[in-house]
């Protein structure tokens, strides 16, 4: 609590109002982590933090893509399925004996292509993103089961290496390559949003797309671009997931889109668009990851209590975040 | 002559014209595939056939979607309806299973009251989070979506609770005037919601809040109350739908009951022509949307489309419905007379900037 | 000045919306180095013509040539690229972005593709200085009043390397000083050879700046005239299409000597009302039947006062009495409960519900007051709506079309009607005549006078000082978010006196307290 | 690393700590499985860290990583899917924590990544069901029309039971699957699909449902269509949960291939053995049986779940 008030005292004078949500989230995340450390001895291992990144690398990448979409005031429900489809296609093509580089290329093209198509439909025909991307979700999931009804293992050398390479001390604390890739994606996205025209247009459209249009901004192009970016991120996420699990499974990532949306929103991005940061999204993903970790460490909850507690922690977190937000408005 | 073309145009430009067309096409396709699809027979004093199944099975979806329509009209969304279905069904079934005489009407009514009551409380919870605390609806209801499944399973202790109660079962599979009782219940709910929204000024006020919350506040509308109310209504609708779902199979399954129904409901609402951004809503459209979705599901089974490809099939149909419904799409193919106007400059609602 | 070739010609432009023929074979020419006023009543089609020009709408018929070649823009982006820079009627900016960004978005200064924020802010400051506006370019645009936003929109438009500058009612919420500053800039641009299309409902402004005038009526071209050859009276007649009989000399309506009905217990009496970082504490009393004007410069806090009195913002200090009984106005609902109504200056964000019909928008406040359980009976609705559609000549007169489809001025009338039918005891009008044509403006002014005679109190906020002077019994003067004086509107009070009071307020402020 | 601080959580009192990651609580079967494991752990004096993965492989991998961090003595889990465990199992192996698979195996080429597998064989269950049908219909002269209610599309039990059943009935060319749809393992799904089967296929002789619940849902559809389950249509299911057994005993089902969830005690034995470094067989199948109507009547009173 003291940390809170300390920070608050400083924020009042200097912090721009728009940074408050993100900072509140950061503080609460630290509190959450503190709770873990105080409750469970092994929680303070630095590897626990690394694991949160390792285990949520793909989620982070997908959430970054979703951040773009939500910033424009849209939504992309297809990401979970696109992730699965990318992993599935990779696994399938590798099993068919295609070289890894080619597979990587193909897999990375699928997501953006689908995203591009959805973006076009949304823009040119003026159909609500929710419904278009829902159809995209059905489609991608359908492709998964169409490719194979059961999971396909990946034995390719490159994939295995990417999966099992440990960066850091291989027997001590380490992160996976996926984490580095995820960080790279985060950095590129943050730069894009803050320093490129595309990024600024994204915010403008989210603020008021009608105004953005009248201001002569390329609304259509930007809108299509964000769905393409989201598709690309989902594809990268899919590749990371296939590194992570070394397989493609038709049912993996079911409901992931909700986790991703939750992460983005918890990170302080407003669903109606126009305000939010990639950094917030990183925090949002971490919040979900730490909650998950807390629950595993506890190890005494049965299945339904797990859900109730997740819901409860989520609620407590959002409530506090909101209350802090109101106070410093 | 020109009179008739005018009538024709009025018909084809009606908001619900194209969904109806898709529905008819889908039924026709089924009939081509299996000529007996449309046939309805009399069996044991009630009607029996695929059409009747569609009606009965769409009843819970219609209910959930009705509540969802109001929520969406205020610019919100309710993801927790699926969990609420499971909870209310589980409570009712649990209560009934504890009764010495499961067939007693009084016991069943108490069970329904209990289930409904809890759902109302949970709906109020959603309402408070959104309207009072000001949490973004999708996250506020996500909390209950996650935790609610847990609650439902807590109630059934993770088991499937089987009951053997005639009166309760009637909610799901009973008949009235040879037709499924469920569809009457859904229609009654629809009429009730329609009456409450269109006979009073509630509908107007909801649309106003969804259309421009700031302007509504300055016009003296207590938008908080209205927002609160729609989440409660949505929860009530979900509760009744939950009774139907569990009564349909005479058992409460905390995990499976109402799973993903929120997505179907939102889809139904959107197909019915209500914008997710809030504002104008159409109850008739929602009902049509729900029927369409159920027909689609039934079609997959009736045409025996392999499970592997059934999702692809759904994707294609959903996109088709949306495309032909979208004015933007049709404009592109009927350029001759109606030149594509740019996006209509309907002024956008001001945004509320609220974290989480 | 018009000897050269026109830089822009529009020929035979027609545009229909479902049920409305907004433009019908309109021709329009614009020469380099001229300011060309486009005039017409509310709903005449001015904004539509502009939107056809910039590609927001596609014309049904007609052609547009720009700089000799035929063009057909598919959207504002192309129009901007081709050198047509536009300020649209409603402020169309992104309130979630900073001021600097709103000016430069789409053409940010960049290095290697990266936006140079510091450079952008520097240039934004310089540009605003040109318009004599000193605000924090780093702050969110939404934190500024509508008038400031309008200035920012203008700043954005004049910075573009353009051949044609289109200004659709840019001055609707600016005060005299700002307008003068804007005109200085416009003249400069004109002299540099820019062609400027200018829309306004202020006739004085037309005669001050315009070289030529094109008049539209009901979507049809009436004619194109050099300003010098068209006297004011003739212009008005051309616009409304009939003899100027309805429009009496407005000045005669002045309140100067009208005995202020200031006796008796005040209807509203606030003491020390204030809100941190919005308005300093002020006292104000309003009596039944009294019109109190609120005068001040741009951003002086008039809107903030109005909002506090209505509970739209919450005061953090002070006491309120209505009819002598202490109460608080913490929410609009509470204020409405006391018979207070408020018509916001920002009609797009805080006024209209675009999707709802004209009828629904009109009855909204009344309905809210009655509660949702008691809908206004349909017959009563028709009665009320018809009456006000007539009285304010709202066009088109079809109450069932969405309000978003009406022209800006007509939307404003609908909002007025919304409050009038609730028969408030105190009506707070923030820039009620914004964007309204002179005919309707007279109508509204007369209505205000008439209602106050009937006992309604009015708090009248307007950037147009003349209007305030004409209507008010008393005038409260604002400066730097502080109420610096309250004057009884007698013979001694005129625009100069008010300006002096504002200036004196400045001196007053310099005194260390 | 601060490997000294963690220590086996139960190390001080000599208790074995078992980290167990369950698939979820998606069915009554699964809940019974969880209960069995929890009870057995208490009984065996084993400290159980239980995690529910909510049907997500990612969650299971996370849980295993966290178990490694907590330095549990043994890790056991029921994999959501077969593939994709090598990386995390390698980490467990490096941390010298033995792993036991329950209920479902993994397809790792490196068999040293886990100690043993304890569970049922879904293919075998399908095959048992099929074999019983072949037996029953051996004298059938005309074609026998079978409809199949599959589990969740893409899930392992659905795939394997389908496969086993198809293999078994291939023995008799008269046995033909005329329709096969997914009922998502739920009663509602089973009922809805069966309704359409009944309308689309005038003659259905046999129903094979991948679990009891779908079979129970289908029962209602069959009754509503005016047919007599168990007589007009032979019903075969898998699982043998209580409701299913009841239906079997009542003569509404004809045959159930058991898939027992009660592997807690067996698991705890294994955990102890593995922890003590004893060698264990690479694959242990749960003791499962099949039930006919008569057997069900006998077995029903002592059914635990
Ligand atoms: N998007 C639209 N849909 C339907 N009708 C419209 C639309 N936009 C404008 N109109 C109609 O076209 C006519 C001309 O409107 P326009 O906005 O051009 O008027 P204006 O001359 O700019 O008026 P004002 O002075 O009030 O701004 C009006 O009758 C208006 O109702
Ligand atoms: N230097 C400035 N010039 C103009 N506006 C400013 C300035 N500084 C701040 N503002 C903003 O202008 C607003 C002033 O309040 P308000 O909107 O009540 O003014 P107003 O008198 O109604 O002026 P307007 O003519 O702009 O409507 C405040 O919200 C404030 O943020
Ligand atoms: Mg206009
Ligand atoms: Mg103002």
UniProtKB/TrEMBL annotation, chain A:
It holds the Pfam family BPD_transp_2. It is found in: Cell membrane. One of its GO terms (cellular component) is plasma membrane. GO terms for molecular function: transmembrane transporter activity. The chain crosses the membrane at residues 20-36, 48-71, 101-125, 131-154, 174-194, 224-244, 251-271, 304-324. This is Sugar ABC transporter permease YjfF. Keywords: Cell membrane, Membrane, Transmembrane, Transmembrane helix. It comes from the Bacteria. It is a multi-pass membrane protein.
From TrEMBL, chain B:
It is found in: Cell membrane. One of its GO terms (molecular function) is transmembrane transporter activity. It comes from the Bacteria. GO terms for cellular component: plasma membrane. It is a multi-pass membrane protein. The chain crosses the membrane at residues 16-33, 54-73, 79-97, 104-125, 131-152, 173-195, 226-245, 257-276, 283-305, 311-329. Keywords: Cell membrane, Membrane, Transmembrane, Transmembrane helix. CDD domains: TM_PBP1_transp_AraH_like. It holds the Pfam family BPD_transp_2. This is ABC transporter permease.
UniProtKB/TrEMBL annotation, chain C:
SMART domains: AAA. Keywords: ATP-binding, Cell membrane, Membrane, Nucleotide-binding, Repeat, Translocase, Transport. Its main location: membrane. It is found in: Cell membrane. One of its GO terms (cellular component) is plasma membrane. This is ATP-binding cassette domain-containing protein. It comes from the Bacteria.
């Amino acid at each position: 609590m003291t940390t809170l008030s300390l920070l608050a005292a400083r924020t009042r004078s200097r912090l721009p109002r728009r940074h408050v949500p993100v900072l509140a989230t950061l503080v609460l995340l630290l509190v959450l982590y503190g709770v873990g450390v105080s409750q469970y001895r092994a929680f303070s291992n630095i590897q626990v933090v690394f694991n949160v990144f390792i285990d949520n690398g793909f989620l982070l990448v997908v959430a970054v893509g979703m951040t773009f979409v939500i910033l424009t005031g849209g939504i992309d429900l297809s990401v979970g399925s696109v992730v699965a489809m990318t992993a599935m296609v990779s696994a399938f093509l590798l099993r068919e004996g295609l070289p890894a580089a080619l597979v990587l290329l193909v897999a990375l093209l699928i997501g953006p292509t689908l995203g591009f198509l959805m973006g076009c439909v949304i823009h040119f025909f003026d159909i609500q993103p929710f419904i278009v991307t829902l159809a995209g979700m059905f489609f991608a999931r359908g492709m998964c089961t169409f490719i194979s009804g059961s999971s396909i293992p990946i034995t390719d050398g490159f994939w295995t290496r990417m999966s099992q390479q440990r960066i850091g001390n291989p027997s001590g604390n380490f992160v996976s390559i996926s984490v580095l890739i995820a960080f790279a994606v985060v950095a590129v996205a943050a730069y894009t949003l803050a320093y490129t025209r595309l990024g600024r247009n994204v915010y403008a459209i989210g603020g008021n797309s009608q105004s953005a249009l009248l201001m002569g901004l390329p609304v259509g192009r930007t809108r299509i671009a964000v769905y393409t970016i989201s598709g690309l991120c989902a594809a990268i996420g899919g590749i990371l997931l296939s590194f992570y699990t070394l397989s493609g499974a038709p049912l993996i990532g079911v409901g992931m889109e909700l986790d991703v949306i939750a992460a983005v929103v918890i990170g302080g991005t407003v669903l109606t668009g126009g305000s939010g940061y990639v950094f917030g999204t990183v925090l949002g993903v971490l919040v979900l990851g730490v909650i998950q970790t807390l629950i595993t460490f506890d190890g005494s909850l049965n299945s339904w209590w797990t859900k109730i507690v997740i819901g409860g922690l989520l609620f407590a977190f959002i409530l506090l975040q909101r209350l802090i937000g109101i106070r410093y408005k | 002559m020109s009179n008739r073309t005018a009538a024709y145009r009025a018909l084809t430009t009606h908001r619900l014209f194209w969904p109806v067309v898709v529905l008819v096409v889908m039924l026709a396709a089924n009939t081509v595939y299996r000529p007996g699809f449309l046939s309805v027979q009399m069996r044991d004093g009630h009607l029996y056939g695929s059409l009747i199944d569609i009606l009965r099975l769409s009843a819970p979806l219609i209910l959930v979607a009705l509540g969802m329509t109001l929520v969406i009209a205020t610019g919100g969304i309710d993801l927790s309806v699926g969990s609420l279905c499971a909870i209310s069904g589980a409570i009712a079934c649990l209560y009934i299973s504890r009764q010495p005489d499961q067939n007693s009407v009084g016991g069943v009514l108490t069970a329904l009251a209990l289930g409904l009551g809890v759902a109302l409380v949970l709906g109020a919870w959603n309402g408070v989070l959104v309207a009072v605390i000001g949490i973004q609806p999708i996250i506020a209801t996500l909390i209950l979506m996650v935790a609610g499944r847990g609650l439902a399973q807590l109630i059934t202790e993770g088991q499937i609770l089987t009951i053997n109660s005639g009166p309760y079962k009637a909610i799901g599979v009973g008949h009235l005037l040879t037709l499924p009782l469920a569809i009457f219940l859904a229609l009654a709910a629809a009429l009730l919601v329609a009456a409450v929204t269109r006979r009073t000024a509630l509908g107007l006020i909801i649309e106003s809040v969804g259309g421009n919350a700031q302007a509504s506040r300055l016009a003296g509308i207590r938008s908080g109350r209205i927002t609160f109310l729609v989440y409660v209504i949505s929860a009530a609708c979900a509760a009744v739908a939950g009774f139907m779902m569990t009564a349909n199979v005479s058992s409460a399954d905390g995990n499976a009951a109402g799973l993903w129904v929120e997505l179907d409901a939102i889809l139904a609402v959107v197909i019915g022509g209500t914008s997710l951004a809030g504002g104008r809503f159409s109850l008739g459209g929602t009902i049509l949307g729900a029927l369409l979705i159920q027909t689609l599901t039934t079609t997959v089974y009736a045409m025996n489309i392999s499970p592997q490809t059934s999702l692809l099939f759904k994707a294609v149909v959903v996109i088709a419905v949306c495309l032909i419904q979208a004015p933007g799409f049709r404009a592109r193919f009927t350029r001759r007379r109606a030149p594509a106007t740019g996006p209509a400059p309907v002024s956008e609602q001001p945004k509320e900037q609220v974290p989480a | 000045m018009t000897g050269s070739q026109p830089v822009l010609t529009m020929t035979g432009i027609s545009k229909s919306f479902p049920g409305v023929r907004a433009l019908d074979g309109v021709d329009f020419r614009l020469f380099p180095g001229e300011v060309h006023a486009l005039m017409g009543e509310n709903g005449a089609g001015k904004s539509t013509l502009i939107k056809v020009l910039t590609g927001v709408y596609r014309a049904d018929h007609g052609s547009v040539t720009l700089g000799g070649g035929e063009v057909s823009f598919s959207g504002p982006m192309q129009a901007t690229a081709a050198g047509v820079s536009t300020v649209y009627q409603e402020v169309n900016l992104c309130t979630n972005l900073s001021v600097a960004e709103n000016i430069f978005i789409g053409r940010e200064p960049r290095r290697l593709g990266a936006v140079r924020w510091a450079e952008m802010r520097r240039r934004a400051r310089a540009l605003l200085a040109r318009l004599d506006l000193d605000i924090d370019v780093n702050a969110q645009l939404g934190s500024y009043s509508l008038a400031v936003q309008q200035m920012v929109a203008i700043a954005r438009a004049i910075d573009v390397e353009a051949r044609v500058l289109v200004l659709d009612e840019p001055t609707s919420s600016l005060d005299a000083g700002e307008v003068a500053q804007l005109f200085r800039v416009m003249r400069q641009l004109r002299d540099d050879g820019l062609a400027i299309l200018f829309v306004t409902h202020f006739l004085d402004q037309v005669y001050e700046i315009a070289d030529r005038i094109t008049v539209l009526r009901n979507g049809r071209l009436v004619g194109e005239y050099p300003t010098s050859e068209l006297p004011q009276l003739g212009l008005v007649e051309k616009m409304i299409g009939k003899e100027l009989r309805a429009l009496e000399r407005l000045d005669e309506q002045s309140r100067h000597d009208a005995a202020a009905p200031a006796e008796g217990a005040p209807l509203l009496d606030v003491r020390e009302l204030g809100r941190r970082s919005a308005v300093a504490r002020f006292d104000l009393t309003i009596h039944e039947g009294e019109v109190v004007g609120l005068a001040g410069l741009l951003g002086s806090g008039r809107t903030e006062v109005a909002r506090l009195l209505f509970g739209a913002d919450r005061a953090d200090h002070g006491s309120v009495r209505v009819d002598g009984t202490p109460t608080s106005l913490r929410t609009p609902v509470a204020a409405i409960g006391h018979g207070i109504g408020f018509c916001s200056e920002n009609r797009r964000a805080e006024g209209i519900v675009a999707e709802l019909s004209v009828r629904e928008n009109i009855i909204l406040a009344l309905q809210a007051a009655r509660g949702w359980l008691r809908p206004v009976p349909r017959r009563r609705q028709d009665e009320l709506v018809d009456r006000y559609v007539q009285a304010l000549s709202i066009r088109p007169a079809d109450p069932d079309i969405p309000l978003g489809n009406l022209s800006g001025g007509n939307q404003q009338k609908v909002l007025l009607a919304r409050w009038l039918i609730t028969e408030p005891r105190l009506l707070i009008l923030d820039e009620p005549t914004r964007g309204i044509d002179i005919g309707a403006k007279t109508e509204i002014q007369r209505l205000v006078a008439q209602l106050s005679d009937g006992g309604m109190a009015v708090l009248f906020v307007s950037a147009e000082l003349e209007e305030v002077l004409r209507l008010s019994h008393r005038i409260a003067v604002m400066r730097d978010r502080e109420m610096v004086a309250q004057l009884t509107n007698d013979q001694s009070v005129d625009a100069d006196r008010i300006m002096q009071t504002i200036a004196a307020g400045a001196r007053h402020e310099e005194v260390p307290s | 690393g601060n490997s000294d601080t963690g220590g086996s959580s139960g190390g001080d009192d000599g208790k074995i700590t078992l980290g167990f990651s369950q698939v979820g609580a998606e069915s009554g079967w699964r809940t019974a499985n969880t209960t069995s494991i929890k009870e057995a752990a208490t009984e065996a004096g084993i400290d159980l860290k239980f995690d529910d993965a909510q049907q997500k492989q990612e969650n299971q991998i996370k849980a295993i990583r966290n178990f490694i961090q907590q330095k549990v003595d043994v890790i056991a889990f029921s994999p959501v899917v077969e593939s994709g465990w090598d990386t995390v199992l390698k980490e467990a192996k490096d941390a010298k924590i033995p792993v036991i698979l329950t209920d479902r195996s993994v397809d790792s080429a490196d068999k040293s990544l886990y100690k043993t597998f304890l569970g049922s064989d879904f293919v075998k269950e399908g095959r048992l069901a099929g074999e019983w049908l072949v037996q029953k219909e051996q004298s059938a002269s005309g074609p026998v029309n079978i409809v199949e209610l599959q589990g969740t599309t893409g899930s392992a039990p659905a795939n394997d039971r389908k496969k086993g059943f198809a293999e078994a009935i291939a023995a008799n060319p008269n046995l033909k699957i005329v329709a096969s749809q997914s009922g998502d393992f739920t009663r509602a799904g089973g009922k809805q699909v069966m309704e359409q089967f009944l309308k689309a296929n005038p003659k259905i002789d046999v129903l094979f449902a991948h679990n009891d619940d779908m079979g129970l849902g289908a029962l209602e559809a069959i009754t509503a269509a005016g047919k007599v389950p168990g007589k007009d249509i032979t019903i075969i299911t898998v699982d043998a949960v209580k409701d299913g057994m009841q239906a079997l005993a009542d003569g509404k089902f004809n045959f159930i291939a058991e898939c027992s969830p009660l592997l807690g005690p067996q698991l705890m034995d294994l955990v102890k053995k593995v922890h003590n470094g004893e060698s264990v067989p690479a694959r242990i199948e749960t003791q499962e049986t099949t039930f006919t109507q008569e057997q069900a009547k006998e077995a029903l009173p002592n059914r635990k779940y």
